[in-house]
Write a structure and sequence with these properties.
single chain, alpha+beta, Deoxyribonuclease I, Chain A, six-stranded mixed β-sheet, globular
Length: 260
């Protein structure tokens, strides 16, 4: 089974590259973040046409929003309010084999890494702390995917020293994410299959005139598995070519393949 994750930055605006990705990569399940659409306006017909008949949504108008589209049945969905303000940032389901799949969109955190002058940064840290408490009592084999908006390792960014004061790579964010990872004994599948210091980026700013030439990327998107589930993972890929497709997201998809 292949499970993909992608911050699409508006699913309706980018439905063309979403369907292209589904045709070319053929994942069994696709988890989307930042869909930016209410549930009633989600472009479900495009997914049904490709055989993704099981669709679960947690949408929000113009902001945030997550979705899971699947070729296999999924059930028992949850919508945790880790932001504590009812923003649509989480959707969780159970797969037919009992595995939990949690799709999450962590807040970006604004531009200033100081909760006293930038409340958004504090909200991000609090969001991650609530996830940490949740991770301490996981119900069984679990896969956590999504845009965590943190690049934790020096090799997860184009310039470690240059970005130490930039939100997404600050020491306090890295430390907070490490506590989350330890709480669930999560295995970072990206670095499990592509060990540091190998280059591994999933996001490039729209500000770059030529994203590929400058290659100032960061690894903001992740797929983590509980240790029992990670033992069944056989491959992990980053579909970097999608960043060069027409009207791209600034993020690219990830896929992990499991031998179930």
């Amino acid at each position: 089974m292949k499970i993909a994750s992608w911050n699409i930055n508006s699913v309706r605006f980018r439905i063309g590259i979403v369907t292209r990705f589904l045709r070319e990569a053929a994942p069994d399940i696709l988890c989307l973040q930042e869909t930016k659409v209410v549930d009633a306006d989600f472009p479900a017909d495009a997914f049904h046409a490709l055989g993704y008949d099981h669709i679960l949504l947690h949408g929000q108008r113009m902001h945030h929003g997550v979705a899971i589209v699947s070729r296999v049945p999924v059930e028992a969905d949850d919508r945790f309010d880790w932001q504590a303000n009812r923003e649509a940032r989480h959707l969780g389901v159970r797969l037919p084999n009992g595995v939990r799949l949690e799709n999450v969109y962590v807040p970006a955190g604004g531009d200033v890494p100081d909760r006293e002058v930038n409340p958004k940064f504090g909200q991000k840290l609090d969001f991650l702390e609530r996830m940490t408490r949740w991770s301490e009592t996981l119900p069984g084999p679990t896969l956590l995917v999504g845009d965590l908006n943190i690049a934790p390792l020096p090799s997860d960014v184009w310039g470690h020293k240059q970005l130490l004061g930039t939100v997404s790579h600050t020491p306090i964010e890295v430390e907070t994410l490490a506590r989350l990872q330890a709480a669930g004994d999560w295995v970072d599948l990206g670095r499990h299959f592509h060990p540091a210091p190998k280059r591994l980026h999933t996001w490039w700013s729209y500000r770059a005139k030529d994203w590929a030439a400058s290659d100032r990327g960061r690894r903001l998107d992740h797929q983590w598995a509980t240790r029992d589930l990670a033992a069944q993972a056989v491959a992990h890929s980053v579909f970097e070519d999608c960043r060069g497709w027409p009207t791209p997201s600034d993020h690219v998809p990830l896929i992990t393949e499991f031998a179930w």
